[in-house]
Design brief:
This is Flavin-containing monooxygenase. Keywords: FAD, Flavoprotein, Monooxygenase, NADP, Oxidoreductase, Repeat. Its EC number is 1.-.-.-. Its cofactor is FAD. The protein is an alpha/beta fold. Helices cover about 55% and strands about 10% of the residues. It has 60 helices and 22 strands. The strands form 6 sheets. Strands 8-16-9-10-12-11 form a 6-stranded mixed sheet, covered by helices on one side. The protein has a 5-stranded parallel sheet with strand order 3-2-1-7-20, with helices on one face. The chain has a 4-stranded mixed sheet with strand order 6-5-4-17. The termini are far apart. About 5% of the residues have low confidence.
Amino acid sequence: MGKSVRVAVIGAGVAGLCAARELLRENHRVVIFEKADRVGGTWVYDPRIDSDPLGIDPMRETAHSSLYRSLRTNLPRPLMGFLDYPLPERENGDPRAFPGHEEMLWFLNKFAQDFGLVELVKFNTEVIRVDQQRSDEWLVESVTRESGSVTASREVFEAVVVCTGSFSEPDVAAVEGIEKWPGYKLHSHNYRVPEPFRDQIVVLIGYGASAFDISRDVATEAKEVHIATRKPDVEVRKLECHNNNIWQHKMIEHAYEDGAVSFQDGSFVYADTIIYCTGYKYHFPFLETNGMVTVEENRVEPMYKHVFPPQLAPWLSFIGITIKNAVFPVVDIQSKWVARVLSGKVSLPNEEDMMASINDHYRQMEENGVPKHFTHALHPYATEYQNWVLAQIGMPPLEEWRGSMYAESINCITAMQDGYRDQWNDARYWEAVSHQDEIATLMFEFFILEIMANMEINGPAELLSELIESTHEVTSLAQSSKFEGRVFTEFSHLVDKFVPIFNDLGENIKFMDHPPIRKAIESLGKELRRAKAMIINPGSKTLVKQIEDMVHDLGRSLGLVLFASLEVSADFKDKIGALQKDLMNARFDRSSTPSPSHHSGFISEIEVEEEIKREGISLDIDDVVVQLKHGNDEELNLALLEVKELIGGKKVDNNWIGNEGVIPVLFNRLSSGKPANRLIIIHLLRSFASDNAENKEKMADVGFLSTLVKSLIRDEEERREAVGLLLDLSELLAVRRRIGRIQGCIVMLVALLNGDDSVASRNAGKLLNALSSNTQNALHMAEAGYFKPLVQYLKEGSDMSKILMATALSRMELTDQSRASLGKAGTIQPLVRMFSTGKLEAKLSALNALQNLSSLTENVQRLISSGILASLLQLLFSVTSVLMTLREPASAILARIAESESILINQDVAQQMLSLLNLSSPVIQNHLLQALNSIASHSSASKVRKKMKENGAIQLLLPFLMETNIKTRNSALNLLYTLSKDSPEELTEQLGETHLNIIINIISSSTSDSEKAAAVGLLGNFPISDKKATDILRRSNFLSLVVSLMTSSSSTSTTKTSLLAESIAGVLIRFTSPLDKKLQHYLAEQGVIPLLVKLLSSESPVAKCRAAISLAQLSQNSPFLRKSRTSRWLCIPSTEAVCEVHGGYCFVKRTFCLVKAGAVAPMIQILEGEEREADEAVLSALATLLQDEIWENGCNYIAKMSGIQAIIKVLGSGNVKAQEKALWILERIFNVEEHRVNYGESAQAVLIDLAQHGDSRLKSTIAKLLAQLELLQFQSSYF
């Protein structure tokens, strides 16, 4: 008989289930780890997809399954089963030759049930680390996520079999230009249903089975489907298919920003979606082998026959990594090989010979021109490979029909033969396939006989008699035991259920001759003898735990009986299966007696204690333990108080606590008890921990600690006690290590630290301080908003700790409040020191962290004070290759520092940055341009701007207008705009017609509001006297473009839309000069006047002011353009066209009338508001309504629009020019007696105050107004 080893199987899909079955056949001890909550692996359909549909974000939330809803097998039914367990046709199942994924999942579930594999699986358990301790010892770390909790586990195995599949980590092909292509991109891993692609044009990349299926599926909803492939002989053509909307092409050549996708055959389409059917990458993130197993270009190497890595064989193996093969038979054969190698029945070559075989395989691939990523592809040598492995384990070769059937199926797929599944005719295979069940039975017998070779054979009747007798002995001993009476009673009931099983076997005695059943029954006999010995002489560990383990061992032995009983009746198998399930699920943690009914509610601890004293209620020690373990809430409460009495009265000691397993019991009850009981439990645990160091060690179990951590989010008193107990336990190094790994623990501790409970806060602070000795804990604390340990590491930690903290800080998504806290805590200075004195890695991590912190103004000042500026500039001038990686974060920090006027202390900074522009990468150029614009934008930077222009800044920036990188071009435009404000005449000298046309093209094509604003603003800075520029703008239909921009811009005001409005309002002024009526008419015909009126209601005071200037200039000519009412019109205008101010016919487009344009009301609203920037321009516009012969009409209209009071308000603004215009208007208004009477009194106080305290230049006009109001003689000295 071969040796038995403990094996971890990672994955419960096709490969994992098959591997587990074969390992069991060889008598190995198997545990299966499965991340999902069921078996089936990739055959489990999950409508969810990755959070990143393309599957390239390493931090994405992933969905394991790659199934789409319509998926059917791409190989026929005979190839979709195992060699000795074929895929059957079932009643009410999927009868098709190529069944759907539901049928395959049913098949795998049945397979797992029939061979007792489900009980071996740890569901919802993800393996996070596999690390070799010794050659035949592997540490497997896992986390189990159930019911919102996370439990970590570490187990040691002799061997590990990796069965994680190869269909969950997408491999994405490179496509030129795809970064800027605007459409939706996803990998076939995340394709589920076709409906989301309705009426779309879809491009698929790939030519395999998934591309074939998905193209047909998505074509049922899409408008067009285009398949791009690297296949060399492909020509552009429409494929014959049901939907008549699928084309094939050569590979994609380029994807463009406008949505176009061009192919290497010269064709192109405008696509909505690209689906990458480009396969998968091997991904083993949990595996730590010190480089002995690597993945490079999708080759897992080195791998002997795709299964064993030579340096680690046979203790590490991989099943199911091959591609282009029939998966089920291949993993079946590989599993048989691994299981027999581990049992010692089959030997592997030595390491040197295995490596020679691998290298020979690589050499042959290279000679035949096979790409490296096809290393694990078996086709067309799959049959040869499988027969080689079968020969190693002494089995006959595969039937020939398997290879033929597989080849025919693959030909149908590669030929894109529609409907091949439903047109499949396997008549020529019928005779061969009809023998499949017979062959499967023979193979099963072969393995069972092999497993049972050399076993001792005893009489079946005598064996059964002995088993029944042993069963009766065990049940009798259990019922009469004086220990753990209730638990032993339940144990005896479970064991007694074996008797009917043995009696049924006696009635079918012939089955006892079957070696597998006989061996399984013998195994049961051994376990029953162990149970008898345990009852007579219990071991040192907790008795309940021993009983529970014994029951589970009996269940495993019975599982062997179930596994071997393939030829017995279904009823008998069901009976065995039911008992086996009861045994495996048995937990001795629930009371088997009815709960007392004399209390309807829960009573307090004090009330119970009083009742105990009053009534003399007492429990004996055995009853206390029973009630602790199995009592209901009231019984538990009573037992807990009794334990307090026993401990306080010194009636029991720590030996009793240990022997009775009180600590595990209390933690078990803590997880589900009522609040009052939980509080007593934690009090007891604290007292146990304070009395005895061994008790602390028992509480250090990660499961217990996880339970305790949950109390940190409960009521205040429980939180306080829980954090106190955790603090007590943290004296143990093991506890400190484990607490930090419990999900959510550190977050809860930080919340307690910042809470109102002073006791809990103080203890949480102490515990956090203890945990911070671990750098990972310090990082978790920082992520929770507690930065003290991180800052301490930056100041005083080792070099590696500093790098770790800085790197983490650079990646955190910090709020401004967090940035401020870090700045105040002194984080800047140690990071600057790291940058100044550290090695390359330290410099890079420090700069990235400083970049993250520098987005807060307060931290920018700290950076400037640190003296880092000179070092950053020096770094940017460095040409040392090792320092090049530092330049990007350095330039980003410079851009932030430049926002502070403090940088102007160094007048040469801007000139140094200018000289670096053409020596830098696009990212650094963008940062430098942002920095230069910030410097130039400072109000006190006029000298800097002048010097920059003298040093050729404008000519240096002009080439950036052709830059394809939008961010860089935008930054250059903003800087040009800023530099052009001081001396616009320089623009005429340095920017020609070509540059103007480039700028106009940017405005029309850019998708960035800020870039449009800068470009329009730059045009607005051209001198109005530059007629050539105006002509260029007219020829380019610039005004139509501007109207379109404003019409399409968002109604929601943002900084970017306000800047755009300001720039547009500024450039329009050049078209409204009152000296050029022809140009004004052109502007009016383009529909600009309504746009100017709209700008009066903008959120930007600057835009309002500029719009008012344009309207004022237009209105100056209105009196001369109006048509007299006495004029002869060929077509008499409507009376609505008569203007009550101008006294004739007015039209917006012909006479630019403010009244007809509806501009007066928003202008008055501006004067009534609190912003004063636009007052002067608005008053200038209103003054045009008071010209010469129309002045009185204008006064009346302003009064009618309730504007007089708003004009009076302006007098108190402090803007002399605005006051001067307001006084001029009021002087005219008060010439009308009605207005003087109605508004004179309200103006008096303002005028008198202005006369006394206002600008002396206004006195003469004020005196005239006061005289009009009869408050001053015309002979006054004011005149």
